[in-house]
Amino acid sequence: QVQLQESGPGLVSPSQTLSLTCTVSGGSITTNSAYWSWIRQPPGKGLEWMGAIAYSGSTYYSPSLKSRTSIYRDTSKNQFTLQLSSVTPEDTAVYYCNGLGNWGQGTQVTVSS
Question: Which residues pair with 79 in a beta bridge?
Answer without folding.
Answer: 23, 74
